[in-house]
Amino acid sequence: MKKNERVVVIGGSSGMGFEIAKMALAKGAEVVIAGRSIQRLEAACVALGENGVEIAVVDIGQQSEVAALFKLVGQLDHLVVTAADLSYGPVTELKESDLMRAVRSKLLGPLFAAQESASRIRPGGSITFTSGIAARRPMRGGAAAAAINSGLEGLARSLAIELAPLRVNVVSPGWTDTPIWDGMTGMTEDRKHEVHSSMAARLPSGRIGRVEDIAEAVFFLMKNGFVTGTVLDVDGGHRLV
Ligand SMILES: NC(=O)c1ccc[n+]([C@@H]2O[C@H](COP(=O)([O-])OP(=O)(O)OC[C@H]3O[C@@H](n4cnc5c(N)ncnc54)[C@H](OP(=O)(O)O)[C@@H]3O)[C@@H](O)[C@H]2O)c1
Prior knowledge:
Low-confidence stretches: none
CATH architecture of the largest domain: 3-Layer(aba) Sandwich
Bound molecules: NADP nicotinamide-adenine-dinucleotide phosphate
Number of domains: 2
């Protein structure tokens, strides 16, 4: 990444997106972090040190809001999307409203963001989406995540052809310790520690992911000009076990 490049991170107020914003700032980029909650964005902005950071409220699942975001942003170099509002639970009990929110946030949202940003991304720039291990290693209660992550990877391959020479890639994280876990039903701190430790013991890596693992992979995808239409698994070997 070159100094003063402009990076937009939708989902940048938390977890992986926040770490990507932090690393981009450390590399001298101008960063826009976007998400739905102004409180989360403001808190993230303070934690990032405010210099070189802009915040923007957007629900990525609403096309008009995404259009307004990129009108405001203007030209940029790299778009990263980590936003997701997924629903988990037994497949027979998943509600249409929850499923539609999940599809909007993590499949249609990235499509809207690509539509609205493509003509504004400078030559040499990139788009990076975030899918996830659920696409490769389905588990009970994860049908929506599996379908949406798989769909997102297909979308990125298609965009890599249609928007070329703009590069479009996907990072597919394995289990990573971020605030996403705190929002899950019944996930107390003790329970989280228990499930993370038991997953760590199963993985070839011997640990679950850290946000830095994912952010570093995103920077590789951003800067390598010969990589497009690729899904980069950063999962500690989860797909093998
Ligand atoms: N953590 C893991 O173990 C794991 C594993 C595999 C894949 N992933 C994937 O990795 C990505 C990042 O996850 P994370 O763990 O970093 O999550 P996180 O800490 O919960 O952060 C999610 C971010 O997305 C924003 N967001 C959610 N819905 C949005 C919407 N509709 N419009 C705009 N922004 C929205 C959130 O802010 P607001 O709520 O304020 O909008 C927040 O900034 C997700 O796609 C997730 O599915 C995570």
